Amino acid sequence: MKMVETQKRPPYAFLVAVVAFVVLVVTAAMNTSSGALIPTILKQTTWTREQVSLAAGIGILFFGLTGPFAAAIQNSIGLRITLAIGLSMSALGMGLGGFAQQPWQFILARGVVVGIGTGMTSLSLAATIVNRWFEESRGTVMGLLTAGNATGQLIFLPVIASLANSHGWRSATQFLVILGVAGLVAVALFMRNHPRDVGQLPYGATAETVPNVLTENPFLTAIKALGEGMRSGDFWLLAVTFFICGASTNGLIGTHLISACGDHGIPEVKAAGLLAAMGVFDMFGTTLSGWLTDRFDSRWLLAIYYSFRGLSLFLLPVALANASWTLGAFAVFYGLDWIATVPPTVRLSTNVFGAQKSGIMFGWIVAFHQIGASLATVIAGNVRTSTGAYNLAFSGAGLLCLCAAVFATFVGTRIRKESLAI
Q1: Chosen domain end from 208, 233, 261
Q2: How far apart are the first and last CA of the chain?
Q3: Which residues pair with 203 in a beta bridge?
Q4: Which band of pLDDT confidence, cut at 50, 70 and 90, is reported for residue 390?
Q5: What is the mean pLDDT of residues 229-255?
Q6: Which of 66, 90, 258, 311 has the fewest beta carbons closer than 10 A?
């Protein structure tokens, strides 16, 4: 009875969602910072492009591999402590990276420590918040939290590039430390593990709809899900297409577009503005993609998204060479398509594995996304060093996207055949 009475207070779930949004914004700022820092680091140190790209690639890799287990850690020790540890590691890694004197020190701090820290505050946090604190408006809240990634890129990437350009890259890393500490303070003050901690039910829930507590070891659940996925052809199709998605977004464009612009005389701050513009249109594109996913076959949506992305990558060298309105058009289009692949990929994952398993299976699919991004970060840096330009990297990624468009059309083929047979 007491819990029902206290539910009359303003729902605490919305404050928790706001804190989660702040955390995701901070995480996005740290994850996308490499693209703004690389040109200045190369100017102000004797480090090579391969070494700096390796740090970014390792960070993306650890971010992705930590993600599937983040929910398990949250269930074990609670949201509040998990996020506090993740933000503390992220801020510590950024701070240590700013004091690095040798490449291996920067790789260890920026790659390993920051990668694991941000992985503990990744989008699995959004799924946990939505399922634990909301019974109603889950889709809306999930969409807003996912937009945190775009918002972090939109707000902070030009600021980071400007700080690095005017005060040095080490000062820019200290700014990121301050962001991490601000997020940590918000978590410490306002984050709670469960609605019952504040005497409330999940928003829109009654006593009878409170979710059951998971009894199986969450780590074991994650490993079992991976084993099941590896025996499924549909899982590999989704994993490979999302691998290519990560390689062509976070890994290539997110990390190296600013450097590629610099090769054509475009200042770092202006180039960072292009990525920020992508962040703006990313929010619109993802929302529209979710609307389309409810109405059309997700396989063909993915085929269209990857096809246009591949064609745009083939045309990017021309846009860079001209440095005219065509580059702005690329930023608008690529922003709309940046994570538009997420809603249809989630839908296909649910169709193949069922609603109950979809979350954990998508977590592993996202891990492949980050592995692709990590490899692309390193490979593109090597291509630039060996050839003097990024053109081959852009063309290779474009070809991969066209392959992904074909692969996507085969997802769920076995299930559809079995349905027709029945």
Answers
A1: 208
A2: 50
A3: 134
A4: very high
A5: 91
A6: 311
